[in-house]
Amino acid sequence: MSEILEELNGRTVIVGSGLAGLMTALTLAPEPTVIVTRALIGGETSSAWAQGGIAASIGEGDCAALHLADTLGAGDGLCDATMAAGIVAEASDTIAALERAGVEFDRDDAGQLSLGLEAAHSLRRIVHSKGDGSGAAIVRALAGAVARTPSITVLEGCQAQRLLLDGDRVVGLLCLGEKGSVVLPSSKVVLATGGIGGLFDATTNPVGNFGQGIALAARAGAKLADMEFVQFHPTALDSRRRPLALVSEAVRGEGALLVNEGGERFMAAVDGAELAPRDIVARAISAEIARGGKVFLDARNALGQRFATRFPVIETLCREAGVDPASDLIPVRPAVHYHMGGVATDERGRSSVPGLWVVGEAASTGLHGANRLASNSLLEAAVMGMRAARDIAGRDGRVRRLQSDLPTTFAPDLTLVRQIVSRHLGVLRNGGAIHGAIAALLPLCESESPTTDPAIVGLLIAVFASLRMESRGAHARTDFPLKLPHAQRRTMHLSDARDVARSVLTQTMARSA
User: How far apart, in whole angstroms, are the C-alpha atoms of residue 513 and residue 487?
Assistant: First the structure.
């Protein structure tokens, strides 16, 4: 029997305590809100692990138009240009809002914000806090602000399990807590659940993040967009650690070079070289590894003994793996880092389901297109969290009727799905592998078990990948290596994806008969 938390009826319910969720709650204050978080507030969030910082066109000679041009270029023809223009234009105001919330950004001796350079940016525009510990510093400051805000209730150790509907409208959230299941009645729910990295063995994200928000929204009938676009960060530290430690591309921004086991600088002839867009670098490194080679970052000449000062977090992680980045080559490999796809939303964070907003990595706004520009993710999380809050403010969220037959739910088990997704949906894909993923995942989606929610997200990625018969951005198919002349975003419901999956399997069986 689920306990209904009637005392919280009508409060905006925010699922997730990364940057997007925290900014949503703080912007809504003093309206009462509830943050539901699986771990401690700010814990197990990709935001807290971000090293790079926040992209903002505030430096000398920079402007929103240049930031937009870089964003569209990295997005490989698939960005929503209007959405992207609006988000990057709010960068300066967003930095100011974060500072008002208590975030302290790094400044130079003259008191100006220190700006870093990252891949595919034409100018230095990355705002940092505590060097390469930006995400942790930002989330820590915002979590502190939440703790000081009496209108925000935080439910820690509470995992969202299912959105409750009355017809097609959201009326509540079913959660699994330490003492059993609870229901939060509300017609205002915000999903800020982060990414899908936990579906893959090689990831820099918290391993429990498998796209729970996407599964929740998909089950509720929300439109999903561009699910095939999974960004692999080119330079995760190649070690036994799980999740893999990230070696920020800011290291390459400071002059570190990519070399193979023979010392060859294999990116030298590529436009942008080591600072080419992430998809290009990830594909090149994957090709080196696929031929049996190894790839390293060489920061010895560019940084040497300065490495520990400029990148203290990365230096510690390297030493943990037995590498001294001042004098040793740093072994690297691609790892899942960000998901450009997700729940389709409008400019205010609204999904296609009434009463459901989605912000941050769980959403697909069109900002990132086929390949996210470095450090645009934290910008989008903050901007869209604040936009959603402004859209929600003043709405009556009280619920007077809840469904009596609550669904059976399970704590998710990623083990089997992670094996399938890692094997078939990596950096370099092909039709056979994609169809193999569909064949393995569809039966798991059509049962109700601990594997179902992870399998739903994995199946969506595979189905969208099967329909994109080209290589664009983070989606690379060896059987369709060319790019189609016209880029096209795609949206789909879970029911549509299941139909496509069944059709794919029928055609595959017919060909093999």
Answer: 35
